Amino acid sequence: MALFKRILFSLRMMRRYRHALANIVQNSPRNRQLCQIPPITFKEQGVAVIVLDFDGVLAAHGEPYPAPELRPWLRDCIALFGPEQVFVLSNKPLSIRIEDFNRHYPGVRYIAEVKKKPYPDGLQKIMAITGQPAQALMLVDDRLLTGGLAACIANVPMTYITRPYVRLSKRPVQELFFMTLRFLERLPFSV
Ligand SMILES: [Mg+2]
Predict the structure, then answer these.
(1) 135-165 residue pLDDT tens
(2) pTM of the full predicted structure?
(3) Phi-psi bin for 25: left (phi > 0), alpha (psi -120 to 50), beta?
(4) What is the Å distance from ligand 1's center to 131 Cα?
């Protein structure tokens, strides 16, 4: 029932924010990965708070830990912004992930117990915690109709990761499902 309601909400919001979504798609380079964007780039854009999605952005779908190559990126990001200004906002707040973050990246908060994206609740919670306005946040996400839509609704800028981590050999069914979703959700907004 919650999933059904969330799908209906997504469709309604997709129509309302279609221009903003099209802007995201058309202004995002293909094959964009998080590790290619030095954290300083965000700082230079005036970003104060970094909000990271997990699946696809930090690791392949369902993985418990961020990809090893991203560890230096995460450390740089935390050093630059301060751990209190770095958040993980995933629709899968697995306890193994939260424990790993608490152990290796103390101070970084993993937002749980909020309505899943595309509901803007997680982003609004981060604004309430940090006291920062929407435009000072940056959501980094690989999904247009979950993270992208939440960002549009909350008026938060988004960095759209167009080349997410995928491990087809480990979870072929799940990964193919999400590859199809990512392709289809982009389709109405591609030129
Ligand atoms: Mg994702």
Answers:
(1) 999 999 999 999 999 999 999 999 999 999 9
(2) 0.96
(3) alpha
(4) 25
CA of 61 to the centre of ligand 1 (A): 8
Residue 36 has a CB neighbour count (10 Å cut-off) of 12
Ligand 1 centroid, distance to 140 Cα (angstroms): 9
56: which 2 tokens?
């696809």
What is the gyration radius of the CA atoms in the chain, in angstroms? 16
189 close to 27: Cβ distance less than 8 angstroms: no
CB contact at 8 A, 107 and 78: yes
CATH of range 2-189; options 1.10.10.10, 3.40.50.1000, 2.30.42.10, 3.40.30.10: 3.40.50.1000
Q: Residue 131 — left, alpha, or beta (φ > 0 → left; ψ -120 to 50 → alpha)?
A: left
Tell me which amino acid residue 157 is. Answer: P
* Nearest alpha-carbon partner for 16 in 139, 135, 153, 138: 153
3-state secondary structure of 158: strand
Strand locations in 53-97 (E): 86-89
- Distant-in-sequence, close-in-space partners of 158: CB < 8 Å, separation ≥ 6: 24, 138, 139, 140, 141, 147, 148, 151, 152
- What is the Å distance from ligand 1's center to 190 Cα? 19
- Whole-number Å distance, alpha carbon 166 to ligand 1 midpoint, is 10
On whether the CB atoms of residues 97 and 90 are closer than 8 A, the answer is yes
